[in-house]
Write a structure and sequence with these properties.
Blueprint lengths: L1 H29 L9 E7 L14 E7 L18 E2 L14 E2 L1 H5 L2 H4 L5 E6 L15 E11 L5 E17 L18 E6 L1 H13 L1 E6 L16
């Protein structure tokens, strides 16, 4: 009889323990998961596709939020840092704007390959002090190219033949300088080559002329941009 009571009590206790364990087990599934706050950060992305060397306007970019730990270290975090810049590579719609994929117009201009317009080529020719208008030619000037060589006249005498072979040609660089100096007090540097922007056929013409005879440059005037209204003489 005692054994039967002991067995009954043990059964009841095991039932209670089993019930408690089952209750605790099911409770963990019914409890709401703890809310985890993930730090986010605003970054700039392309609102639409931006082509290489294209100017980035406000219409082409927007701000989005991303988890801070997933953001690329070179991601731009301000619209003002991007607006007005140039894309140095193709940027797809929705792509992050990274600092190494944008540049200013001044940055772009130091690469001759990025200054050359479509369907044109850059070609350099050697010049001396006189041929280069006393080294007064600067990048972005326009020049006429004069070709001169010695030919035989009717009496078999050597005489010079001179002609203008190219007109209003854009200067991309002089020596290794590819930008017009902003400071007029820049130290004088002599150079021995001039790089021009030409159509392929004209580039060949210039190279042939430089091999066959001598070339000289005639400097065209560069219009001065007026930033302020100049009062008339009558005022």
């Amino acid at each position: 009889m005692l054994k039967a009571k002991t067995a009954l009590m043990l059964s009841v206790m095991l039932g209670i323990i089993t019930t408690i364990l089952f209750f605790q087990y099911t409770k963990q599934f019914s409890a709401e998961p703890a809310t985890v706050t993930v730090p986010t950060i605003d970054i700039v992305v392309a609102k639409e596709k931006i082509g290489k060397n294209e100017k980035i306007t406000s219409e082409k970019i927007e701000m989005i939020q991303m988890p801070e730990e997933t953001v690329h270290p070179k991601a731009i975090k301000s619209l003002t840092e991007v607006e007005g810049m140039l894309a140095t590579a193709m940027i797809e719609k929705g792509e992050l704007i990274l600092s190494h994929r944008i540049g200013s117009k001044k940055d772009e201009s130091v690469y001759v390959s990025r200054k050359v317009k479509d369907e044109y080529r850059a070609v350099s020719v050697g010049v001396n002090f006189n041929q280069s208008v006393s080294n007064l030619i600067e990048p972005e000037d326009e020049v006429d190219v004069v070709f001169s060589k010695m030919v035989k006249d009717a009496t078999n005498k050597d005489v010079p033949k001179t002609e203008i072979i190219l007109k209003k040609t854009r200067v991309l660089a002089v020596g290794r300088k590819m930008q017009t100096p902003e400071n007029t007090e820049e130290p004088y540097v002599e150079y021995s080559s001039v790089t021009l922007e030409l159509k392929p056929d004209d580039a060949v013409k210039l190279i042939n002329a430089s091999e066959e005879g001598k070339i000289h440059f005639i400097l065209n005037n560069r219009p001065v941009e007026q930033t302020e209204d100049v009062p008339s003489k009558e005022e």
